[in-house]
């Protein structure tokens, strides 16, 4: 038997791997210009950070359907991932622990939620793409409120994130994809600093879905997001009047109009599997949900004890 040595792929080869498999070019100078900008950004990301976005995406997208019903645009993902790499590695200096615990195939990543804006979700999704073993493309379940916001309502579906409806999650899990779910929802992300790292009650929907689709659950703990935008209060009447999930009071915006550059630490726990009837009474489902919540709270508490500083 004769073995043939294969040369390492060049940047053009890796770009072609992603582009030919996922990118559907359309006519128009704006699209061509955007692709040229994206190509250059991807090259710079490889040179500066050492992250070969096209190579990672080539692996991560291998199991994705070419025609995505949610409006995913692979060029937008390339651009966004190359850009987010600087935020993930440079600004938040993210540490990832035990990412190898994420199994192949369908899986639900269940995480604590905090920070006023969902940068914790961005960090977990970016971790799975840039540090996953192997790389994974993770779908996020977003609140309906996001669909009312300018820019985000367009960008979010283009990067593969979907409305957090059970039918959408079920469809993706049946395709053996990976989902990240924050069962605390808006109540978790909008916690004031006095309640930092104290998980609020979890919704039950994710557990019913896991039972229905026979999906393993990987508990995830994110440390660092609680301190990025410090809220001292939530004016609930004003939030209700404006149709917002929360109206936090953020004094730091008076002198620093960005999230603070806290150091992110992401911990992936061992997979949990549950059996039972997804249509059981709430009391039965709550017992299973309590196991997941307690596991994540324990992971958070342990990580906080090990953390020596917020910014390094």
Q: Which value, in Å, is the CA radius of gyration?
A: 20 Å
CATH architecture term of the largest domain: 3-Layer(aba) Sandwich
- Give the name of the CATH superfamily of the largest domain: Glycerol-3-phosphate (1)-acyltransferase
Total strand count, please?
9
Number of helices: 11
**Largest sheet features:** 7 strands, mixed
Give the overall average pLDDT: 87
Major β-sheet strand ordering: 1-9-6-2-5-3-4
What is the number of independent domains?
A: 2
Estimated helix fraction = 40-55%
Low-confidence stretches: 1-9, 11-23
What fold name goes in the CATH topology slot of the largest domain? Glycerol-3-phosphate (1)-acyltransferase
Q: In terms of structural class, how would the helical and strand content be classed?
A: alpha/beta
CATH top level of the largest domain is: Alpha Beta
Q: What general form does the structure show?
A: globular
Order of helices and strands: HHHHEEHEHEHEHHEEHEEH
| Residue fraction in strands | 5-15%
Distance between the ends: 53 Å
Quick summary of this structure?
The chain has helices at 11-22, 29-49, 53-60, 74-91, 119-130, 152-158, 166-174, 185-189, 205-213, 236-242, 282-306; strands spanning 95-97, 107-111, 138-142, 162-163, 178-181, 217-223, 233-234, 248-249, 265-268. The protein is of the alpha/beta class. Strand 3 (138-142), helix 6 (152-158) and strand 4 (162-163) form a beta-alpha-beta unit.
Question: What does this protein look like?
Answer:
- Helix content is 43%, strand content 11%.
- The chain is built from 11 helices and 9 strands.
- The protein has helices spanning 11-22, 29-49, 53-60, 74-91, 119-130, 152-158, 166-174, 185-189, 205-213, 236-242, 282-306; strands spanning 95-97, 107-111, 138-142, 162-163, 178-181, 217-223, 233-234, 248-249, 265-268.
- The strands form 2 sheets. It has a 7-stranded mixed beta sheet, with helices on both faces. A two-stranded antiparallel ribbon has the order 7-8.
- The longest helix has 25 residues, at 282-306.
- The radius of gyration is 20 Å and the shape is globular.
- The chain starts with 10 loop residues before the first helix and ends in a 6-residue tail after the last helix.
- The model is unreliable at 1-9 and 11-23 (pLDDT under 50).
């Amino acid at each position: 038997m004769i073995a043939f040595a294969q040369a390492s792929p060049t940047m053009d080869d890796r770009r072609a791997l992603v582009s030919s498999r996922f990118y559907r070019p359309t006519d128009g100078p704006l699209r061509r210009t955007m692709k040229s900008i994206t190509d250059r950004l991807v090259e710079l990301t490889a040179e500066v950070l050492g992250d070969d976005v096209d190579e990672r995406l080539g692996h991560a997208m291998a199991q994705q359907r070419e025609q995505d019903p949610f409006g995913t645009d692979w060029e937008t993902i390339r651009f966004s991932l190359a850009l987010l790499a600087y935020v993930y590695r440079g600004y938040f200096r993210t540490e990832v622990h035990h990412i190898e615990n994420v199994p192949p195939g369908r899986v639900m990543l269940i995480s604590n939620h905090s920070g006023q804006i969902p940068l914790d979700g961005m960090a977990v999704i970016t971790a799975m793409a840039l540090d996953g073993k192997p790389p994974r493309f993770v779908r996020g379940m977003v609140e309906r409120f996001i669909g009312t916001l300018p820019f985000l309502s367009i960008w979010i579906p283009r990067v593969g994130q979907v409305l957090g409806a059970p039918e959408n999650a079920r469809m993706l899990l049946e395709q053996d994809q990976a989902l990240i779910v924050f069962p605390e929802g808006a109540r978790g992300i909008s916690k004031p600093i006095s309640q930092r790292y104290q998980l609020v009650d979890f919704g039950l929907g994710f557990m019913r879905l896991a039972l229905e689709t026979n999906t393993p659950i990987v508990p995830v703990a994110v440390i660092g997001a609680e301190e990025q935008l410090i809220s001292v209060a939530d004016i609930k009447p004003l939030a209700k009047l404006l149709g917002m999930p929360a109206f936090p009071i953020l004094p730091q915006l008076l002198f620093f109009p960005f999230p603070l550059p806290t150091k992110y630490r992401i911990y992936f726990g061992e997979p949990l599997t549950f059996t039972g009837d997804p249509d059981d009474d709430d009391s039965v489902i709550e017992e299973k949900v309590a196991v997941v919540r307690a596991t994540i709270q324990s992971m958070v508490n342990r990580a906080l004890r090990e953390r020596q500083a917020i910014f390094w």
